[in-house]
Specification:
By secondary structure, the protein is of the alpha/beta class. It has one domain: Alpha-Beta Complex (putative 2-phosphosulfolactate phosphatase), CATH 3.90.1560.10. Helix content is 34%, strand content 22%. It contains nine helices and eleven strands. Strands 7-2-8-1-9 form a five-stranded parallel β-sheet. A four-stranded mixed β-sheet has the order 3-6-4-5. The chain has a two-stranded antiparallel sheet with strand order 10-11. Strand 10 and strand 11 form a beta hairpin. Helix 4 packs across helix 5. The chain starts with a strand and ends with a strand. 48% of the residues are buried. It catalyses: (2R)-O-phospho-3-sulfolactate + H2O = (2R)-3-sulfolactate + phosphate.
């Protein structure tokens, strides 16, 4: 039986074999939620990069550029890290370069995998249905916060494990832990997360609407996949 495992932070990724594995990267607040939304609204591609300097180089080549650090937009870039930014009709069909504190770093570290997919609650079912058709094991990589574990990405991992538990065996304790955590909080994720560190961080910036939006399940039938150095929308 295929196996699903959970890596709770990119700093632990070196402990997991990825050569014969599909990695699903999750940065619920807010990078992967932004990416899923962007493709749902017609963006052509997103190049995820680890550093602000790399993002600036793509910007100089004519790409729209999004840069976020510590949940704030970096000065000098066109786009921020709110999913509502990517609903703008004017960026439909665009190629975007993006760097974020955690999410894009996690994606760039996953490049040795068979495939790298971008997951969020917004496309949870699309990711689950896609993986059911794949012959490979799955590793859910939680972007976390600066190398540390966070609740929201762990909850997403648990939600995906829950959707796949009939098709995949839980490989290690981290998958079981994430699944049980999601079972505790799934009926009201906003309340369950109310005292979490990133919720408090975002609330200080006055962006409660982003939090509410990112916790919605199954809004979009979109699966971003890494092809070369760019994310594109997989044909479903």
């Amino acid at each position: 039986m295929k196996q699903i495992d959970v890596c709770l932070t990119p700093d632990l990724l070196h402990l997991y074999p990825t050569e014969n594995t599909i990695v699903v990267v999750a940065d619920v607040f807010r990078a992967t939620s932004c990416m899923v939304t962007a493709f749902a609204y017609g963006v052509k591609s997103i190049i995820p990069v680890a550093t602000v300097d790399e993002c600036r180089l793509w910007q100089e080549r004519g790409y729209l550029a999004a840069a976020e650090r510590n949940a704030r937009k970096v000065e000098g870039f066109e786009l921020d890290n709110s999913p509502f930014t990517y609903m703008d009709e004017e960026i439909r069909g665009s190629d975007i370069a993006m760097t974020t504190t955690n999410g894009t770093l996690a994606i760039t570290r996953s490049r040795g995998a068979v495939k790298v997919l971008v997951g969020s609650f917004l496309n949870l079912d699309a990711i689950a249905q896609t993986l059911k058709t794949e012959p490979y094991d799955v590793l859910v990589l939680c972007a976390g916060w600066k190398g540390r574990v966070n609740m929201e990405d762990t909850l997403f991992a648990g939600a995906l494990v829950d959707r796949l538990k009939e098709s995949y065996a839980m490989a290690e304790d981290s998958a079981i832990m994430a699944w049980r955590l999601y079972g505790q909080g799934k009926d009201n994720l906003a309340s369950y997360l109310s005292n979490s560190s990133h919720i408090r961080r975002l609330q200080r910036l006055g962006i409660q609407k982003d939090i509410t939006y990112c916790l919605q399940h199954d809004l979009y039938d979109v699966v971003p996949v890494l092809r070369g150095n760019a994310l594109v929308s997989m044909e479903l």
